[in-house]
Amino acid sequence: MAHLRGDAKLHPSRRVKVTDAILARLESGGLEQLTTLAIDHLLSVPLAALVNPEVLASQIAINWRHTARSEQSHEWVRAHVERLRSATPAGRLRDHIAPGLTGPLQDAISKPVVPSRALVGRLMEHGAVEDLLRELLVGALQGFAKRLRPAVPGSERAVGRLRSLKRVSEGMLGGLGAEIERQAEQKAKDFVDTILSSVVAQAADDLCDPDKAEDYGRFRAHLLDQLLDTPLAELKREADKLDTDTLVDTAVEMAGVMADSEHLEAQISSIIQIGLETIGEQSAGQLLDDAGVTDAWRIEVEQQVNSIAADFVKTAQFRAWLDGILSE
User: Exposure string (b/e) for 10-21, b if CB count within 10 Å is 16 or more?
Assistant: First the structure.
């Protein structure tokens, strides 16, 4: 503060006047100017220079472990889940996503990529897939057989009466018709069981066929479009099919397992580092500009900072600090 006091320390009475003058200047617009300068500087610095991945990861891990192991973790998670469930969403998912994001995402997932045949095969080798294909094939065979029966020669007296045999409760023809249908159904099931593994393999081959890669790419884009255009209220009804207790218990259990990991800090740090590497040398200001939210962000942040700073400079602690600086 040599420019204020010269070569000698300020006299106490003079120091009080200087302190009062600085505080008055801050309260009459200087504080807002200082906030603007500080934010301008922060927005111009590369984001990677402002973030230390290890330190940030350590703080996140500490808070994570404290929250996950807290006795109030269930209540905290439940409160958030119930708050989300009590909300009434409006519009579609697409309406809440920046228009510039959906295009690149659709382009990426619609690329004609050929997946690994071995991986697809392992994914499809599941009882649910086999049961679905079995029911479809058996139903198709039985339906086809029923459509062929009327065209069999001589059907007028016997076989051709199978349509009406379902309504016959007594007599030889009724029993014969039921037996024929039972055997036909069993033969269809036996036949499908013998070819089921090859059908699953053919389905996997089709999914991995390079000639159909563009078709499946368009199908993936179709799935994304359907998700984005589905009303949020409908998606919420689907999510509500899981009861609150299940969601809460699952979230708490997952958070606890992650909190117990000795590699938590390293994993968080790695995620942060990947994000910073993706950003490169871009500053926070550039990222906000790209997102088109710079003005709205600045207005809100500057108002918050100015409000906090205005209360702070009025405290006795700040005045004592400023007075100490001037007395050095």
Answer: beeeebeebbee
Q: Is there a single domain that holds both residue 59 and residue 27?
A: no
Its sign, for the CA torsion 314, 315, 318, 321, is positive
Name the phi and psi angles at 46, rounded to 5.
-55, 135
Say yes or no: 129 and 55 in one domain: no
Looking at residue 295, its pLDDT comes to 86
Per DSSP, the residues of 117-185 read: HHHHHHHH-SHHHHHHHHHHHHHHHHHHHHHHGGGSTTTTTSGGGHHHHTT--SSHHHHHHHHHHHHHH
Hey, what are 70's tokens?
Answer: 């807290």
pLDDT at residue 70, as a whole number: 82
Q: Taking 50 as the threshold, does the pLDDT of residue 155 lie above it?
A: no
Alpha carbon distance, N-terminus to C-terminus of the chain: 8
Give Cα 54 to chain centroid, integer Å.
25
> Domain for residue 226, yes or no?
no
Q: What pLDDT, in 10s, does the model give residues 289-306? A: 887 888 888 889 999 999
pTM of the model as a whole: 0.58
**Among 43-52, 186-195, 226-235, 257-266, the least confident range:** 186-195
Domain encompassing residue 144:
115-208
Residue type at 294?
T
